[in-house]
Amino acid sequence: MGVMVTRAESAAATRRALLDAAAELLDLGGPEAVTLREVGARAGVTRGAPYRHFADKDSLLTAIAAERWEQLADQAHTLRSGELPPAGKLRAALQALIGVGREQPHLYAMLFRWRDHRPGPLGRLHREVCGPVGDPDAADRAAGRFQDEFLRIVADAVGERDAQHYGALLLTGAHGIAGLEHSGHLGADKWRTSADALVDTLIRMVGAGSRQ
């Protein structure tokens, strides 16, 4: 006798398939490649299924970004309770973020979209009228959770007083490293260094600065 699947379980499986399909399309061709029709076809669901879960393309992309931020936050939380020394935890957290830029550059760009590119009041009204409202602030909250977890790792390394200053410095440094590497302007022939070496230098500089 087959296992009965509830409506909620079926809906969750469909949503999961849509998110996975959208993430694959994003990796392959960037945001332009992600349409609800293409996502539904790739996921193998009915034509109307994507519209029952996401009001529009931006709702879907926001959900993908939020999920990736949550994964990064989970990684940072796991690092905090691990056995690495404080500098090792910082290094692993920064490398995880840079790794997204290296392996999934289109998704990385979505994580750091400028606020001008996010839907304003009219866009949110469109979602409410035309489809599932979703959660337009989900990515911001998930990013905030990652930042909170990262700040705790920084505080363990430099102390509570300086954690925010040095945490911001480390994240902006990592973001710059990821951008230069992706653009091809971090060539070893030109700079005689690497992304990993720069991360190590950032951590050493932060450690030295916090002891002054």
Would you mind describing this structure in some detail?
This protein has 212 residues and is mainly α. It has two domains: 53 residues, Homeodomain-like (Arc Repressor Mutant, subunit A, Orthogonal Bundle), CATH 1.10.10; 150 residues, Tetracycline Repressor, domain 2. 74% of the residues lie in helices and 0% in strands. Helix 4 packs across helix 6, helix 5 packs antiparallel against helix 8 and helix 5 runs parallel beside helix 9. The chain is globular and about 60 Å long.
What is the CATH fold-level name of the largest domain? Tetracycline Repressor, domain 2
Structural class: mainly alpha
What percent of residues are in strands? under 5%
Distance between termini? 70 Å
Write the layout of secondary structure elements.
Layout: H1 7-29, H2 36-43, H3 49-53, H4 57-80, H5 86-103, H6 105-111, H7 121-130, H8 138-158, H9 163-183, H10 188-191, H11 195-210
List keywords for this structure.
single chain; DNA-binding transcription factor activity; Tet_transcr_reg_TetR-rel_C_sf; mainly alpha; transcription; Tetracycline Repressor, domain 2; 212 residues; transcription cis-regulatory region binding; 11 helices; Arc Repressor Mutant, subunit A; HTH-type_TetR-like_transc_reg
